[in-house]
Amino acid sequence: MIIGGEAELALLLHIFPEGVEELDGAFAVYADEPPLGFDVVETDDVADDWEGRWREFHHGALVGGFWVGPPWEEAPPGAETIVIDPGRAFGTGAHPTTRLTLELLQTLEPDSLLDVGCGSGVLAIAAAKLGFAPVTGIDLDDAAVEATTANARANGVELTAQRVDALADELPAAELTVANIALDIVERLLPRLASRRAVTSGYLDRDRPQVDGWRSVSRREHDGWAADLLERA
Q1: Which residues, 6+ apart, have CB-to-CB distance to 116 below 8 Å?
Q2: Structural domains in the chain plus CATH codes
Q3: Secondary structure element (H or E) that encloses residue 134, with its range
Q4: What is the C-alpha to C-alpha distance for residues 219 and 138, in angstroms, rounded to an integer?
């Protein structure tokens, strides 16, 4: 069953523990029955050995000076390694929005950082490895908080991960916020931040955040997706 929506990826781990696979910008979920409340685009039978083969769908990626990948693959020589266990749902950094955000992050001087919608912790872990501190990851899903904490420990970095509703709860203060989430959430989030700058993504290259008090400083695009470095006007 194919389900669209980059922002929903982290939540699918809790809903579909049997397995989730990213396919051409959408997500295939593995379940015995069609999921209620989701648009089913396609259904197909799954091989009995799926639970032993799901790792074939998760591969590492070079992003600037980083190699981001699962623990069963080896990083190329000379790359700074970020090992992410996808847990059958969380991506390992190959999606264009993650790559673009990580590329922009590597151009900035380290400071305090808030990762909104931390998911598997890729961006928060990369920030910690780049020297950002303190690093705080927040997510609405408990599974994402647990994954970020576990992956940070596996990568030997210090950060804090908390369950927070970014559109309702008070947000931790930080000089830089990264938010790889949907455009409408980005636009609702920016006025609530106590940050001087923000790196945002999770939307197509035809879209741009339009929020009073913020201006675009830099933009990167790849494969139909975009990421922006914004600062307060």
Answers
A1: 138, 166, 171, 177, 178, 179, 181, 189
A2: 2-57 (no CATH), 95-232 (3.40.50.150)
A3: none
A4: 24
Backbone angles phi, psi at 178, to 5 degrees: -110, 140
At 5, list the tokens. 């929506």
* 23-66 pLDDT tens trace: 555 666 666 666 556 666 566 666 666 555 656 666 788 899 99
- Tell how strand 225-232 and strand 197-204 pair up: antiparallel
What CA–CA distance (Å, rounded) separates 26 from 206? Answer: 19
Question: Cis omega before residue 134 (within 30°)?
Answer: yes
* Angstrom distance (rounded) from CA 15 to CA 20: 10
Token match 């035809």: residue? 206
Q: How far apart are CA 220 and CA 81, in angstroms?
A: 23
The pTM of the full predicted model, rounded to 2 decimals, is 0.78
**Residues β-bridged to residue 178:** 115, 199
- Residue located via tokens 């400071």: 111
Residues 220 and 227: beta-carbon distance below 8 Å: yes
CB 148 within 8 A of CB 124: yes
67: left (phi over 0), alpha (psi -120 to 50) or beta: beta
